[in-house]
Amino acid sequence: MHHLSHLPLRTLLSPNILMAHKLLLESTPSSSVLSSSLFSLRRFIPVPSYEMNGPFTRSPRPPAPLRVSRFCTHASVVMPGAAHLQKVEDETRVAAKLAELKKRLEVEGINCGTCTPGQYHHLFCPKCAGGDSNERSFSLFIHEAGDSAMWSCFRAKCGWKGHVKAIGQPARKSPGNKMTSKSNSYRVITEESLNLEPLCNELLAYFNERMISRETLRRNGVMQRRLGDGVAIAFAYRRNGSLVSCKYRAVPKKFWQESGTEKILYGVDDIKKAKDIIIVEGEMDKLSMEEAGFLNCVSVPDGAPAKVSEKELPSKEKDTKYQYLWNCKDYFPKDSRIILATDADEPGQALAEELARRLGRERCWRVKWPRRNETEFCKDVNDVLMYLGPDALKDVIERAELYPVRGLFQFDHYFEDIDLYYSHRSSYETGVSSGWKSLDELYKVVPGELTIVTGVPSSGKSEWIDALMVNLNRSEDWKFAVCSMENQVREHARKLLEKYIRKPFFMASYAGDAERMSAEELKRGKEWLNDTFYLIRCEDDCLPSIKWVLELAKVAVLRYGARGLVIDPYNELDHQRPSSQTETEYVSQMLTRIKRFAQHHSCHVWFVAHPRQLQNWTGGPPNLYDISGSAHFINKCDNGIVVHRNRDPDSGPLDEVKICVRKVRNKVIGNIGDAVLSYSRATGEFKDLEKMPEANRTKRG
């Protein structure tokens, strides 16, 4: 093969010259292996122009004509180098060896039929049968002399490889995607067997444009491999100084690796005994880190996945995609700090997450890529080095942040929200008015909180919540999801309409002398009902579960913008709990789920719960510990309210309803105490008393 140094770079690295196929890497050392693609020499930074000076001023030679018979990847392609066999053996001896070889292949389950020696053949894999796509993924090559054959299935889920000789040596097979840790199962390679050689001037110029110096290339053993009339960059993967594998690059970004070799991290010897370890996505990034002064850096060998896997973390034996981490686990001491400097794109971030899952998020850090200019961010390590320089890259690493761990935060994550809260610029930071001045001193409504409402039967719990929703809609235009199992829809509509229109629905005894709402007012009221409330109801005879209610409430929040949820009452829900779980445990779990819903969706929840049967009741309001089921109703709620209607004429007017605030977790929005409202039987409205007797108001706290 003639020397190539006299060729211009555009000719040397032309697509025709560099064209190759990954199958050729598995050929014998005497075989010629071809690369592909064209090196890009865009001027990202001020460097001498290699096209305008020196030997590059010569007119480029036209690219060599593409000989399809040598480069096609389909079946019946002549093996490069086959024409240079030292001697073609006697046809009889070749036929005998070929017959023996085919027998050995049949033992492996490979039916080569009429496969011609010296050619590649694409068949159906005996192991995976082409998978679901039924593809001919199995490549078989029989040496022209008939004395050996090699095969490989290129389906990722199979990966069966092996080779066999006609005489004297049993078959050697790769077990597909079942990894093994035995060192003698990997192919032994050397620089001589791969025909590696020092980088030519053209490739040195290519690295120079990317700010990679000759010294960095020399220290990392970056070499080249001649491929036909072209060359490819060879990144030598070494461990303890010995060559373990080799990865090739033909730009733009076409990579392949030596088959049958162990997967390890690139530059793994540089992180021996290192306390800080940087992991990058590619070999070029590893070299770029060294230009910024960081030797303690390694690169992954296989690039980044398209997205984060949704499956559970596989065992070591089945984690084939990231086997290089397991093979290098001894290089990551438990007290090491790992900085993930993967690319800024989605696959790069997916790689960071997959690495953090395996190495432990608690010891991982991540980088934030700086701006390249006013409109763009740097996309990776080499981008920062080329556009901003080594000092900027050093600053990126020194400013690395802790890798986020789900559920664990520092306060600075919330500083913006705290500032808004302080300056009264966040929504409803001190609560929303209930619509009653006397009650606002004790209780306001805050999105994301849970209010438990209780009271003896016929005390007006549901009526008061309906009136509160009407007030919130009038003042703040709130919308609500309502799960009210005790009310028929038409009856509930009547109560809400009376409060909104402020007129009775019927001309009946309860209305007294009040004027009935007109048909026009009813029409307007129905439009308001339809725009304000979203009903959660079981239309069959089944009882709703709390999970079902919250799922539908989530839809109301996301689809219609509901800000409040009413569940009325607790005892009408289907309480599906295992026999081993106590009611107290169940109530605790249920209330936790409701609170998480409220906080996550910034939705206030009113949950009505009846008190248990009261013994020796004297007519006074119950307390929150009287609620049937569990003390968790008061322990877990943000606000606890008892609604109590006066039934004794001697104690005061019968239209007075006492709103007893018995728990307020947030002192900013309320306090413990009682507010007394008057109730209109005709319209269902609650109003502040014009003048409230001190005896009827027992404010505490």
Pick out its properties.
single-stranded DNA binding; 701 residues; disordered N terminus; 19 helices; ATP binding; elongated; 6-stranded antiparallel beta sheet; alpha/beta; TOPRIM_dom
Overview of the molecule:
With 701 residues, the protein is α/β, with parallel strands linked by helices. The protein is 26% helix and 18% strand. It has 19 helices and 25 strands. The strands form 4 sheets. Strands 19-18-20-21-17-22-23-24-25 form a 9-stranded mixed beta sheet, with helices on both faces. Strands 1-2-3-4-5-6 form a 6-stranded antiparallel beta sheet. Strands 7-8-9-10-11 form a 5-stranded antiparallel beta sheet, with no helix packed on it. Strand 3 (138-142) and strand 4 form a beta hairpin. It is elongated. The N and C termini lie far apart (96 Å). Residues 1-89, 169-184 and 691-701 have low confidence and may be disordered. GO terms for molecular function: 5'-3' DNA helicase activity; ATP binding; single-stranded DNA binding. This is SF4 helicase domain-containing protein. Residues 425-693 form the SF4 helicase domain. InterPro entries: DNA_helicase_DnaB-like_C, P-loop_NTPase, TOPRIM_DnaG/twinkle, TOPRIM_dom, Twinkle-like. One of its GO terms (biological process) is DNA replication.
Helix-strand layout with pairing:
Elements: H1 9-12, H2 15-18, H3 68-71, E1 77-78, H4 91-107, E2 119-123, E3 138-142, E4 148-153, E5 161-165, E6 172-174, E7 196-197, H5 201-209, H6 214-219, E8 223-227, E9 230-239, E10 242-250, E11 254-257, E12 276-280, H7 283-291, E13 297-299, H8 323-327, E14 337-341, H9 346-359, E15 364-366, H10 381-388, H11 390-398, E16 401-402, H12 415-422, H13 437-440, E17 450-454, H14 461-476, E18 480-484, H15 489-501, H16 519-532, E19 533-535, H17 546-560, E20 564-568, H18 583-601, E21 604-608, H19 632-636, E22 639-645, E23 656-664, E24 673-679, E25 686-688
Parallel strand pairs: 12-13, 12-14, 14-15, 17-21, 17-22, 18-19, 18-20, 20-21
Antiparallel strand pairs: 1-2, 2-3, 3-4, 4-5, 5-6, 7-8, 8-9, 9-10, 10-11, 15-16, 22-23, 23-24, 24-25
